[in-house]
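Format is sequence with structure; example below:
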Amino acid sequence: MKTQRILAPVDGSERSHSALMEADALASRNGGDLTLMFVHAPATVHLMDDEYPEPTEMTEELMAKARKILEKWSATLNTQNAKRHILVERGKPAQTIIDSSGDYDMIVMSTHGYDGLKHFQLGSVAERVVRGAKCDVLVVKRLGDTSD
C-alpha cells in the first residue's frame, strides 16, 4: 500500500490527536508527506424565519486559533519538517475531507465512537469519509474507548 501522501483531519480532540500520532508514524516511517487538516463548519443561527451566518470576524478568529493549534501539534511530530503541511479550511467537515481526498494516498482519522441514537442524530464524519473518499482511509479508535 502506497502511503507517501497522508491527510490527517483533526478536530482538536484527544482522539484526533491520537490518530495524528498514527499518521505521523506512517509518514515518518515511509518518508512521506503529512498534511494536518482542520475544517471549520461555520455556525448558522436560526431566529424564527430568518437565518444568520456566523460573523466573518468570528470565523477568521476561530480559523486562526485552529492554525496555531495545528502548528503546535505539527512541531511535535517525527515527520520531516519540510514534509509537514497545515490546511485550515471552511466548510462541511466530511465533504471537505472527501473533496481533498484525491490528492492523498491515505486519510488517517479518528472516530468519536458514537453508537445508537447519538450516532443516528449526529451522523459520523468518519463514516461519510470512508464511503466517499477517493483514497484509502484508516480510522483510528483508541483502545478502551467504548463511548463518548
